[in-house]
Amino acid sequence: MYLMPTLTLSTSPAPLILEASRESQVCYVLLIVQASVTGAAPSRPVNWALVADVSRSMRIPIVDETQFRSLLRTGSAQEMLVDGVPVWQLSGSVPQEVRDTASSALDYVVRALHTIVERLDHHDRLALVVFADHALLLIPGMVGADRVTLVRAIERLPGLNLGDGTNLADGIALALNQIRANRDGRCADRIILLTDGFTRDSAACLALADQAADEHIAITTIGLGGEFQDDLLTAIADRSGGHALFLKRVSAIPRAVSAELETVRAAAVSAVTIAIAPQRGVQLRRVTRMRPALALLAEPTGAAAMDVTQVSLGDLAAGTPVTLLLEFLVPAANPGPLWIAGVAARSSGARLADTDIRAAVTHHAPPLSHDVRAAAARSMAARLMRRATTASDPAEAARLMRAAAARFDDFGEQALAAAAREQASAFEHGARIAGIATRELTYATRRLGEVS
């Protein structure tokens, strides 16, 4: 039986009360988007494309703890300082037995693909795009029933040589074309891209993410290790409504890819977008997703701040609300009613819910509620941290990072605060920040949206 999913929109605080003022004032509103279905919804078939980096760095063998201890005993690995950061460097030949048993990131991608093929249903479609200097379509959107052909194509993966570069944009473009070619209206559409490096053309990647969002195709990104572009991968995911994942260990690739497949299958409402239309004189300054992962989704400027702003939320699971923090600049107002904005929610273009954000303007408005104040403060802390990691001046980067650390302390996030201060100290002493530490801090900050 086909079950009709529903979306509900609610706001906090409710009712919204603002202080009468002769000047413009900032107004914060939490928008909660909730999906639900009645009964047990059937699992949806999936039309998806995996975009995998096959450059040289993905083929480097990664030793486990036992193998590493073997290298230490033979003198093949030694500790040294690079820009004040302790690192291990190979100083001799690696024993053949270690070479034969150590797996690379690409080996784990192959394992993940084998696991996925085993889980594909007859109506699922899987496309595989690989890229390095250029992109190649290895599997052209084949149905799950073609398991033998799929496995044979996957086995070709380790033997490919597409160069040493990282041309992510070509890979995304090929994947989008495959999703478009195999769409049938019944399947959930998803792209998963996986990389450990820096791409040539970030602007092209972001433009493709915007195209994907316009076509209701979510892109989930998986960054490996400590040398990928976390700002680019998180932006691709956030713009298109996908998830942004960081894997410190490549052995987690199969589990992460499998979990993403199951998440797509379980979605109650797919390809959800939210349109926010401020009323005349009201400016929308910022849209920040607080749950499930803190991320700045929109920051319109100029005339765009007073126009309709649309953000992609991707697929929504039943019972797992998405919370957005909306920040408005409202004009001077006398006591009375004030219409701030209209909000509409759509799924794959079909309108499912709408609501108005209205306020009562009085001479004695209450202070901001705890949940709104906490959301605004955490959003600010995340922006401070991001500005610090992208600042070109080390002194300014250190100042911003220490400011973020102070905010983390206020939330009781001592581990985050300590990590931020360590990076601030490194900025001040001109040391190079370890990639893993930077990525861990970036992705940990995205978890700040959960307010107790």
Automatic annotation (TrEMBL):
Pfam families: VWA. SUPFAM superfamilies: vWA-like. It comes from the Bacteria. Residues 83-261 form the VWFA domain. SMART domains: VWA. InterPro entries: CLCR (IPR051266), VWF_A (IPR002035), vWFA_dom_sf (IPR036465). This is von Willebrand factor type A.
